[in-house]
Q: What sequence folds into this?
């Protein structure tokens, strides 16, 4: 994990450059798509944080994305300050994550057990959202969510234009990614890795596994909610599917196939797949899904280390090897 | 119990179904003492360590660190109070470097939030880690991935991780198992180096090693302390000779 | 409807028994290989669709149902050989995602062939039976009895036969089983087939009384996993017991509240059970 840092940094810079340039050169309608894709990418990265480092599997990660989305959607229509809404969405998600984490980790439920609870939870919220149609608009969801305008630091922020909102999203996403990156490469990140490898040993070293795991799930929930919150004003809709199994599974696929623990792999894969999903005609939806399913299955078997590591492997075959010192 | 002991147990009981591994063990260690626990295989020595650290819950009895009753405390809390152990098969984190392994051990007393940032007093942390690595003669290995080390090297890294935590009591489970003669001597030197800072309790089979470093010996047999004393006292004890079936030369 | 009336009670018991058949199928697969088979619900769906096709081709319903079980079992075998077997060493996430991929593929293929709309199979027995003073659809009674018979058979097979012993030994300790000469590879293969066949048969039996659609499996796979979580994986009876809790409570609650609320209650129960008894209600540990 540590050695990969410098190799990924170049990739990161390229992506940042691409994203910034797109804001200038891409047509406006595509900026909305790009912003959406990038937000899903952040969502994937936040899930990779839990799974790729601490080994925590949540089969219902969409819960936090959906919460962020709905709270923002509802609040924006009610004219509440968007920044406040984002913070509320994150706070609610973190609270739920901490509660579930406490229950699950305190009793040392197995990875699968914990994952299934997460799934049930998100399905429960999906149902709840559909039934509370007075607040949430039922199956149709919350529609016509306006783009945010608000005052902050004495200035009026009008984020109605796609270009402006795009840059806003890019800034937040890059900042978030940077934060997660820093965390993962800090001693906290190393503690996560160590805990996953040998929890008992960590206990005898004085680390409280419950605390570490709860912190991790909380962080993931926060950034997942953030992604959902920023997502809604682009499409203008918050719908129950944002809570569903499909999104939860998709994000796990982006994590696994993007390269668990790389943070950047899931980001790229999630963003790219969302882009292709939006741009490919809806006529092809069934065939598209069929092919995607086939690709998933094939890749899980043939390239379990994920796309980004596969890419590096392939690049390694074609470039001369630099000798790597292993110490002395 | 001895009132100034750094680690003590009172009437410790533990049974796994019909197998009794502790029947009323009264054990105590003084600060800065080096105690060796010996006994035939299967006598429950490692289990005793597991009971002391809290990895296995006891059935009855009390465990104290200095004057504090730690019987009900979870494993990580006991560490925070100064009880540190190493394992028979070394447990380190192979994905991390040697430096990071020891650093992680050092920083366990900090808050999680502090771990997210660089340590404010990174100077202190770095010095402590380097010091610990010096003591085990692995200063050149700081950037080596711990997984690529030899068995003996891993054991030494685990020891560095233990001593960097500045324990009051260090429990070492068969530190010389699988070590060469030279490595064993280095471990003995290490124990002599740290004995002024902490109490050390060592489960061991290597009697030469025991002879060199032990202040006192506890013989564990069938879940209880059979004898305690110096090596000289125990050497000629016929009971001791018998329980080893005469197969070990003391 | 009188909540504790015969009709309602029979409905509840019937729901429990169907879920139990599906859940026992998952119990075998999960208990053996720790595989989170996301396609298990689609086995139910396929069982229903195969029955649909065969009955439309003039096959007798019961023959169609048996054939459906067989065919779905074989599909399960294909999945195991073609996908799952490569992932046993790769961990939970890999098998879950791979089977999810398979699930997507199966759903899409079915959608392309049959369209997304709901379909029905004609009820093979149209009459009503008078039981305990109430008129109740005969087919449902037959379905109930068949499910109980299946569960009893599986129980007998697992507990009393040599094959069952092989399966239970492998479930308990794969390494030991292998060391004793059991071909765990084969056990996994036939276990997957058996588990899928059970789900397929349940789907076949459901086809006259449930809305057949490509997505009908989702509900079953979710519930099956909840059964595993609540009941535990100690034995087949844990799965049956878990089904009783999940299906029983949900159906009972549906009399007083809508589906959403009953689902939430189930959720709360799952979380509380995890807290109080994480190994499952029906585990002895």
A:
């Amino acid at each position: 994990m540590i050695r990969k840092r410098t190799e990924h940094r170049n990739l990161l810079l390229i992506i940042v450059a691409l994203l910034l340039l797109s804001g200038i050169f891409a047509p406006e309608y595509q900026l909305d798509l790009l912003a959406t894709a990038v937000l899903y990418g952040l969502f994937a990265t936040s899930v990779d944080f839990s799974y790729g480092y601490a080994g925590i599997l949540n089969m219902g990660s969409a819960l936090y994305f959906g919460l962020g989305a709905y709270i923002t959607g509802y609040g924006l229509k009610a004219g509440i300050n968007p920044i406040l809404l984002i913070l509320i969405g994150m706070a609610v998600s973190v609270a739920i994550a901490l509660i579930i984490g406490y229950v699950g980790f305190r009793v040392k439920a197995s990875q699968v057990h914990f994952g299934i609870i997460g799934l049930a939870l998100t399905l429960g919220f999906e149902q709840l959202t559909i039934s509370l149609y007075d607040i949430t608009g039922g199956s149709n969801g919350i529609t016509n969510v306006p783009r945010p305008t608000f005052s902050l630091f004495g200035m009026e922020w009008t984020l109605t234009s796609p270009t402006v909102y795009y840059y806003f999203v890019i800034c937040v996403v890059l900042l978030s990614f940077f934060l997660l990156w820093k965390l993962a490469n800090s001693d906290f990140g190393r503690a996560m890795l160590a805990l996953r490898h040998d929890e008992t040993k960590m206990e005898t070293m004085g680390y409280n596994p419950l605390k570490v795991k709860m912190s991790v799930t909380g962080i993931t929930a926060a950034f997942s909610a953030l992604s959902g919150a920023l997502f809604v004003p682009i499409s203008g809709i918050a719908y129950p599917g944002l809570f569903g199994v499909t999104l939860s599974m998709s994000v796990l696929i982006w994590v696994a196939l993007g390269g668990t623990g790389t943070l950047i792999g899931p980001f790229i894969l999630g963003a790219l797949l969302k882009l292709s999903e939006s741009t490919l005609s809806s006529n092809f939806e069934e065939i598209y899904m069929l092919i995607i399913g086939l690709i998933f299955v094939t890749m899980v078997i043939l390239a379990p280390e994920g796309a980004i590591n596969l890419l590096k492997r392939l690049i390694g075959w074609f470039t001369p090897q630099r000798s790597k010192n292993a110490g002395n | 119990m001895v009132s100034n002991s750094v680690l003590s147990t009172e009437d410790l009981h533990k049974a796994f179904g019909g197998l009794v591994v502790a029947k009323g063990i009264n054990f105590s260690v003084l600060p800065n003492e080096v105690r060796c626990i010996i006994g035939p295989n299967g006598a429950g020595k490692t289990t005793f360590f597991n009971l002391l650290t809290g990895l296995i819950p006891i059935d009855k009895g009390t465990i104290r660190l200095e004057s504090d009753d730690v019987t009900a405390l979870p494993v990580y809390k006991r560490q925070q109070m100064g009880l540190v152990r190493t394992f028979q098969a070394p447990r380190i984190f192979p994905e991390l470097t040697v430096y990071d392994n020891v650093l992680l051990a050092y920083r366990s007393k900090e808050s999680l939030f502090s771990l997210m940032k660089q340590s404010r007093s990174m100077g202190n942390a770095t010095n402590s880690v380097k010091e610990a690595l010096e003591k085990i003669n692995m200063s050149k290995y700081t950037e080596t991935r711990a997984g690529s080390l030899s068995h003996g090297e891993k054991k030494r890294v685990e020891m560095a991780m233990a001593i960097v935590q500045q324990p009051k009591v260090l429990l070492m489970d068969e530190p010389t198992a699988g070590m060469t003669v030279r490595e064993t001597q280095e471990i003995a030197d290490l124990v002599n180096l740290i004995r002024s800072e902490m109490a050390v309790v060592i489960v061991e089979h290597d009697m030469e090693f025991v002879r060199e470093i032990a202040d006192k010996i506890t013989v564990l047999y069938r879940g209880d302390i059979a004898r305690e004393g110096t090596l000289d006292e125990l050497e000629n004890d016929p009971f001791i000779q018998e329980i080893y079936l005469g197969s070990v030369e003391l | 409807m009188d909540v504790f009336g015969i009709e309602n009670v029979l409905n509840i018991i019937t729901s429990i028994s169907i879920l139990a058949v599906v859940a026992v199928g998952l119990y075998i697969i999960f208990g053996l290989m720790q595989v989170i088979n996301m396609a298990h619900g689609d086995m139910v769906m396929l069982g229903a669709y195969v029955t649909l096709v065969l009955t439309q081709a003039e096959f007798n319903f019961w023959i169609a149902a048996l054939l459906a079980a067989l065919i779905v079992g074989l599909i399960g075998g294909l999945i195991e050989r073609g996908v799952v077997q490569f992932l046993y060493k790769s961990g939970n996430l890999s098998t879950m995602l791979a089977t999810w991929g398979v699930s997507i593929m199966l759903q899409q293929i079915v959608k392309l062939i049959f369209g997304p709309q709901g379909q029905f199979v004609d009820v093979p027995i149209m009459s009503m039976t008078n039981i305990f003073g109430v008129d109740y659809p005969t087919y449902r009674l037959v379905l109930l009895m068949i499910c109980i018979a299946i569960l009893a058979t599986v129980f007998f097979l697992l507990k009393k036969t040599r094959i069952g012993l092989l399966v239970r030994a492998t479930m308990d300790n794969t390494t030991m089983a292998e060391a004793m000469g059991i071909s765990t590879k084969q056990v996994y293969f036939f276990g997957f087939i058996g588990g899928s066949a059970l789900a397929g048969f349940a789907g076949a039996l459901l086809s006259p009384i449930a809305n057949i659609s490509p997505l009908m499996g989702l509900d079953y796979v979710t519930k099956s996993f909840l059964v595993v979580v609540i009941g535990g994986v100690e034995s087949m009876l844990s799965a049956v017991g878990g089904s009783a809790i999940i299906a029983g409570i949900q159906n009972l609650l549906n009399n007083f509240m809508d589906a959403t609320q009953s689902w939430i209650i189930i959720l709360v129960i799952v979380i509380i059970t995890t807290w109080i008894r994480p190994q499952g209600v029906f585990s002895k540990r």
